[in-house]
Amino acid sequence: MKQTDMQKIAQALVAPKKGILAADESTGTIAKRFNVIKVENTEENRRNYRDLLFTTKGFGDYISGVILYDETLRQKGRDGTPFAKVLQKAGSIPGIKVDAGTVAMTGAPEEKVTQGLDGLRERLKEYYGLGARFAKWRAVITIGDGLPTLANIQENARLLANYAALCQEQNIVPIVEPEVLMDADNTIERCMAVTTMTLHEVFDALYDHCVVLEEMLLKPNMVVSGKKCKKQASVEDTAAMTLECLRRTVPAAVPGIVFLSGGQSSAKATAHLNAMNASGPLPWQLSFSYGRALQEEALAAWRGQDKNVAAAQKVFYGRAKLNGLARSGKYSDKLEKEFASV
Ligand code: 13P
Predict the structure, then answer these.
(1) What's the CA-to-centroid distance between 10 and ligand 1, angstroms?
(2) How many CA atoms lie within 13 A of 222 on its CB side?
């Protein structure tokens, strides 16, 4: 059967060796990242930082697509070329974050729902005109005492499905991102239970809203121990439980699963992806859509100074390459040590 444009884009985003760079930090979130390296959060600094990433030599070798924030999709790089063009020239597909962040859920202030459906159809039309071929919407599920509630999971699933259906109507591939947070003290077993329930509800809602599974990507959390949990699961157990959860919940028609890093260290995020791909064959492509885990080292090397751009690009490329190797189980501790020593 002839493939649709959206199927081709979805497959290109999870092509062998490649994954997605999430560079869609809102102005508030990038402030937190810049704060760590003492860089002022001005439009120019945001532009220069994104320019640094996107003009890295060989960018498209391992980065199939980039999720941008509204401001960045409208910006031009340092040489005056619109960022969407810069990415296309590098062999990477521009994408766009379209949710408008989270707010407390009515009646359940400890839980969050995601906003942004109002006017989304018109915004998608405009984003398509600006070059975006895929989009992202992030839902947040919180683990805690008696949390999450089924009501919260179902509401977030419904919003994700609405968003995904609208994207496909506008020829934009939706990345469906239900993120179970890893900040609490819960065990990995609890993360497994909550992630399983969340993904069941999400795929139920996608079915109800007639979302075409072949024309979307899933961006889930890995099944991990909560950050504050005393007993941290091994890389092997994390990989095995994540795969078990995904096999039970994600239909094989979905072309790819692109993980978020969610606060894992860069090395752990790469190691987990590698362990999963090493234990294939798998029904879907298993790749990355990391924000922090692809950028942390580059940000630390840059520190807002032009003289550090080349060094920052080198570590950015190096980390992207390690994740590219993890796509086929070819990453190793030895390669990680070599990377750390250059
Ligand atoms: P992290 O990899 O830093 O979790 O970011 C991915 C993302 O896009 C979150 O929405």
Answers:
(1) 19
(2) 33
Nearest-atom index, ligand 1, CA of 295: 3
Q: Which amino acid is it at 177?
A: E
| Residues ≥6 apart with Cβ < 8 Å to 89 | 81
- Residue ranges of domains in the chain: 5-340
The CATH number of domain 5-340 is 3.20.20.70: yes
Single out the residue of 214, 182, 172 nearest to residue 68, CA to CA.
172
CA dist 5 → 170, 171, 195 (Å): 12, 8, 31
Task: Kindly give the pairing relationship between strand 256-259 and strand 217-218.
Answer: parallel
Summarised one tens digit per residue, pLDDT across range 280-294 is 899 999 999 999 999
Tens of pLDDT, residues 76-100: 999 999 999 999 999 999 999 999 9
Whether ligand 1 lies within 6 angstroms of the CB of 326 is answered as no
Any atom of ligand 1 within 6 Å of the Cβ of 137 = no
Query: For residue range 212-256, what is the model confidence (pLDDT) as tens digits?
Result: 999 999 999 999 999 999 999 999 999 999 999 999 999 999 999
Question: In this predicted structure, what is the pLDDT of residue 342?
Answer: 81
Please indicate whether residue 262, judged by its CB atom, sits closer than 6 Å to ligand 1.
yes
For residue 44, count CB atoms less than 10 angstroms from its CB and return exposed for 0-12, middle for 13-18, buried for 19 or more: exposed
> What pLDDT score was predicted for residue 63?
99
What single letter denotes the amino acid at residue 167?
A: C
- Tell me the DSSP string of 62-122: HEEEEEE-HHHHH-B-TTS-BHHHHHHHTT-EEEEE----EEEETTEEEEEEE---TTHHH
- Amino acid identity of residue 196, one-letter, is T
Q: pLDDT by residue (tens digit) across 120-169?
A: 999 999 999 999 999 999 999 999 999 999 999 999 999 999 999 999 99
